[in-house]
């Protein structure tokens, strides 16, 4: 929505520093250019984005309840709800850029939302590795290692950014150096988030390349001669070759790429400080922040693991390999029946991965 702010500041006006604590609407003194964003956000785009994230939240939650993919669905749904709130707040800013509560809401929600969405992404690698071939995991990491490392690391990035925001807020308008220190801490948190995402991408790529090479072999055995382990290996190969698995893995790779682009953009956006030229450029924000996170959420919703990769479910009914693995353990004198997924003896004996 395009609006024109009052052009001139009267010469008789006393010295005045516009800010969210002194301005409540656009006036001759409180011009839109003086806001952190520096523009009227596009109302139509932000309403569209708020609705899109809201639909993703509803869809992910519904499929999660239906297919019992609790951890993944809760993380993605919470992230989408925050994104929805953030863009609803930006829609409010389109009519009044000095609306302080809406500005704070969009800042907090749009920063926090992708962090929760990344948690859902991290959970997928755990189950892909556990289901297909834990023995191919990089550095022999057990599948449960991935969320145990990446989720706290991702949350730490958020905490660092929050600390930076607190430092910047305490600086106010008087202490410019302290404000800059707060901004540097925020950038450090975003850079660390890129490093964490990068490490996740490297480990995922190593595993997928190993799996591709591994499953080029044939695991077909005569039924009368095949051992339980050999039958399990054959099932793992069939899972790898299934179209649903290929679509699911492809969707996760696409979502990962979008989230990584978003984080790299955030570094550039924050590098110049609050109210810099990149931060005040709405088209780049919409393309590299809004659409990147939006595309990732659509992929997470449309290619929900409960439908496309059911091994992430708590339900035994949708995990065809669970009962065979339980029977195999019983034969060996070990009983592991229940909601324990991804057990295998392929190099990682009796590995347990709780389904989330």
From TrEMBL:
GO terms for cellular component: fungal-type vacuole; plasma membrane. It is a multi-pass membrane protein. The keyword Transmembrane helix applies. InterPro entries: RTA1. The keyword Membrane applies. It holds the Pfam family RTA1. It is found in: Membrane. The chain crosses the membrane at residues 47-66, 73-93, 105-125, 145-165, 185-209, 247-268, 288-309. Keywords: Membrane, Transmembrane, Transmembrane helix. This is RTA1 like protein-domain-containing protein. It comes from Pseudoneurospora amorphoporcata.
């Amino acid at each position: 929505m395009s609006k024109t702010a009052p052009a001139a500041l009267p010469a008789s006006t006393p010295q005045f520093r516009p800010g969210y604590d002194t301005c409540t609407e656009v006036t001759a003194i409180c011009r839109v250019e003086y806001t952190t964003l520096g523009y009227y956000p596009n109302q139509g785009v932000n309403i569209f984005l708020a609705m899109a994230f809201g639909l993703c939240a509803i869809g992910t939650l519904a499929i999660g309840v239906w297919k019992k993919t609790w951890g993944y669905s809760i993380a993605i749904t919470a992230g989408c709800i925050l994104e929805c709130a953030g863009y609803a707040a930006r829609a409010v800013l389109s009519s009044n850029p000095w609306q302080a509560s809406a500005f704070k809401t969009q800042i907090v929600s749009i920063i926090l939302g992708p962090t929760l969405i990344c948690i859902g992404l991290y959970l997928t690698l755990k189950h892909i590795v556990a289901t297909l071939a834990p023995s191919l995991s990089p550095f022999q990491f057990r599948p449960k290692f991935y969320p145990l490392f990446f989720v706290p690391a991702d949350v730490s990035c958020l905490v660092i950014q929050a600390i930076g925001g607190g430092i910047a807020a305490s600086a106010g308008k008087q202490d410019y150096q302290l404000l800059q220190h707060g901004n540097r801490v925020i950038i450090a948190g975003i850079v660390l988030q890129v490093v964490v995402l990068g490490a996740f991408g490297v480990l995922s790529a190593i595993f997928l390349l190993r799996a591709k090479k591994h499953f080029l072999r044939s695991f077909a055995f005569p039924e009368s001669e095949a051992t339980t382990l050999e039958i399990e290996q054959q099932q793992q190969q069939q899972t790898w070759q299934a179209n649903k698995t290929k679509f699911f893995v492809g969707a996760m790779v696409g979502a990962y790429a979008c989230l990584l682009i978003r984080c790299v953009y955030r570094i550039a956006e924050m590098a110049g400080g609050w109210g810099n030229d990149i931060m005040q450029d709405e088209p780049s924000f919409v393309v590299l922040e809004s659409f990147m996170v939006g595309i990732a959420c659509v992929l997470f919703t449309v290619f929900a693991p409960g439908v496309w990769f059911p091994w992430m479910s708590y339900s035994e009914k949708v995990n065809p390999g669970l009962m065979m693995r339980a029977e195999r353990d019983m034969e060996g004198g070990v009983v592991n029946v229940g909601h324990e997924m991804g057990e295998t003896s392929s190099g990682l004996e009796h590995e347990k991965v709780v389904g989330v």
